[in-house]
Amino acid sequence: MVVSHDITLPTEEELTVQEVNVSSSVLRSAAFHLGKYCEFANDEFMLCRTENNGDPRKCLKEGKEVTRCSLEFFQKMKKVCRQQFESYAECVDKSSCNFQFKPCRKSQGVYDQCMLDNMGLERPHWGYFSKAKIHDTKRPKPPPPEIQVYPDATPALPDDYPRHPNKYGGYYAHQ
Predict the structure, then answer these.
(1) Where are the chain's structural domains?
(2) What are the pLDDT digits (tens) for 11-34?
(3) What is the reported pTM?
(4) How many CB atoms lie within 10 A of CB 89?
(5) Residues 91, 97, 98, 102: is their CA dihedral positive or negative?
(6) How many degrees, rounded to 5, is the angle at CA 89 between CA 113 and CA 99?
(7) Contact at 8 Å (CB) between 43 and 133?
């Protein structure tokens, strides 16, 4: 990556957070409930990234909130539905080579019911996260980018400027 002198990078302390240290199958198994639980933090982060043209340096606070929310979700879920979730995640991990949900519908149902009973989280339907939503934020909108003003184009040639026919035929530049 090329960096110039006028680019400021965040410090190591600004970037250091406790990570969500889980495997792909665990993350995939928890994705629907995790997405629903941390929906506001995720939407806030994605709105920040969109408003700042994808610049991650301007959204560190929002990114840390997503990580904090994810850790909180796994800690709460572990207290109330650990056994049901572990059997579901193990099924997703071992039943297919690409983490398919289909072979694990029975253990998924048990896990979903536990999450609904203990955390009040219903598994969202398949199209829920792709629906258009309006996100209300308290974060101020960033200023619009400066409009770059370029000098006017080179003026056209005067009408009396000599014009010659094209070398290999075709149309004249000016009739």
Answers:
(1) 18-130
(2) 898 888 999 999 999 999 999 999
(3) 0.76
(4) 22
(5) negative
(6) 115
(7) yes
Instruction: Return the structure tokens found at 137.
Output: 């934020």
How far from each other are the two terminal CA atoms of the chain, in whole angstroms?
Answer: 52
Q: Is 116 exposed, middle or buried (0-12, 13-18, 19+ CB in 10 A)?
A: middle
What's the pLDDT score for residue 33? 96
Angle, alpha carbons 57-60-65 (nearest 5°): 160
Length of the chain: 175
CA distance 4 to 143: 23
Rg (alpha carbons) of the chain, rounded to whole number: 28
> Distance between CA 127 and CA 115 in Å, rounded?
20
Helix (H, G, I), strand (E, B) or coil at 48: helix
Q: Are 134 and 142 in contact (CB under 8 A)?
A: no
pLDDT on residue 153: 74
Q: 40, 128 in Cβ contact below 8 A?
A: no
**Is 64 in contact with 17 (CB distance < 8 Å)?**
yes
Cβ 30 vs Cβ 74: under 8 Å: yes
114 to each of 30, 39, 78, 128, how far by Cα in Å?
13, 20, 11, 21
